Amino acid sequence: MPTRIFLANPDIDVNIPSYIEEALDDIKNEGECYITWSAGQVKSIKVGDKAYLKKTGKGKRGFIAVGEVIKTEYAEHRLNKLSQYHNYSDAYTQHFFGNYPTVSIRLDEVVSLDSPLEDSYLLQLSSMQGVNLVRYGSGQGLVHCGVSLDRVMPPKASL
Is the dihedral of CA 124, 152, 61, 91 positive or negative? Predict the structure, then answer.
């Protein structure tokens, strides 16, 4: 399955810090967290795609969460139930962020917004040489690189 990078910019959405705090609590107490996130203009996101949230904007930037794109729980909330979106997967919801649809994601690991796994660190790893981590929109894929960020995300015990 493809790897998707979803952007999290607290300068654009001021609720992101509270979303991340809630996710940290949910994972600590329940082992996982369910969210919807903007897919940007990407229409090819599928159930099962690997999902990473990447903090952008001011301050430290880098990866803050890892999880998986999941099927939107209630069929009546799936975007593909609307005729103009019939080509979209079951991951897309009828909730929009601005003009962009959102997808359902299960987060398995999250770190604080203050301590993201920064690109500068990742790009020093031999397994990440030549990988382009720059993204200009949410939901874009990290394709044909053969790299799994799971190997470098901190384990749950250190969160």
Answer: positive
